[in-house]
Design goal:
This protein is an alpha/beta fold. It has a single domain, classed as P-loop containing nucleotide triphosphate hydrolases (Rossmann fold, 3-Layer(aba) Sandwich), CATH 3.40.50.300. About 50% of the residues lie in helices and about 15% in strands. A 5-stranded parallel beta sheet has the order 2-3-1-4-8, sandwiched between helices. A 3-stranded antiparallel beta sheet has the order 6-5-7. A hairpin with a 5-residue loop joins strand 5 and strand 6. The longest helix is centred in the last third of the chain and has 24 residues. The structure holds zinc ion. The site of zinc ion has 8 residues, from loops. One of its GO terms (biological process) is AMP salvage. Belongs to the adenylate kinase family. One of its GO terms (cellular component) is cytoplasm. Its main location: cytoplasm.
Length: about 230
């Protein structure tokens, strides 16, 4: 399934860990021919290609410093001029602050473009805590289970391999998940407000099924790009 957009889309996808952002970004790539650009990948590619901005980034990283917004924007600008992203991009990991969002807007405006939509995958924090903190896996084959949603047919025995040892990730406990969500909201609130002010914020209920979220996202992308 591939739909044709009349204008290249510049999408910002926002969502806390566990909201399925990566999965949904891959589906948008499939559905619309968009290309996901993550800051880490962009930096690595620019350094490897030895572009002017890539050389600057390399020097900064080798000095153990953070790559500045200017360099990231320069790399992004180069990347967005490539023919494979003619149908649009999904930005991942940038912008992170409202200052970066304003700088991105300036960059896009200079190219006659703008952010088409900033899409926030909205979760119910407490439901999310339950979802993530109930996860555990078979210690033998790695099959995933959940206290609430997916118990083995025979209690204490893996459906797949018959194993009886299970394990939980230390960082999947309720308190850690709550902390991660809190940090996400604190970091993202200014960005959400920024895009809301620009009239391009779209909110999606990300607690439903993957297919349901996918169709809601597709509807938004079709609408804003038409
Ligand atoms: Zn197993």
């Amino acid at each position: 399934m591939s739909e044709v957009l009349t204008t290249p889309a510049v999408l910002i996808l926002l969502g806390p860990p566990g909201a399925g952002k990566g999965t949904q970004a891959r589906m948008l790539e499939e559905d619309f021919g968009l290309v996901q650009l993550s800051t880490g990948d962009l930096l690595r590619a620019a350094v490897a290609a030895g572009t002017e901005a890539g050389k600057q980034a390399k020097a900064v990283m080798e000095a153990g410093q953070l790559v500045s917004d200017e360099i990231v924007l320069a790399i992004l600008k180069d990347r967005m001029a490539a023919p494979d992203v003619a149908r649009g991009v999904i930005l991942d990991g940038f912008p992170r602050t409202d200052g970066q969002a304003a700088a991105l807007d300036a960059l896009l405006a200079a190219a006659g473009q703008k952010v088409t939509a900033a899409i926030s995958l909205e979760v119910d924090d407490e439901a999310m805590v339950g979802r993530v903190s109930g996860r555990y896996t078979c210690g033998t084959c790695g099959e995933g289970y959940h206290d609430e949603f997916k118990q083995p047919a025979v209690a204490g025995t893996c459906d797949k391999c018959g194993g009886t040892a299970f394990k939980r990730r230390a960082d999947d406990n309720a308190e850690t998940v709550r902390e991660r969500l809190k940090a996400y909201h604190a970091q993202t609130a200014p960005l959400i407000a920024y895009y809301e002010g620009k009239g391009v914020l779209e909110r999606i209920d990300a607690m439903g099924s993957i297919a349901g979220i996918r169709s809601a996202l597709s509807a938004i992308v079709s609408r804003v790009s038409a």
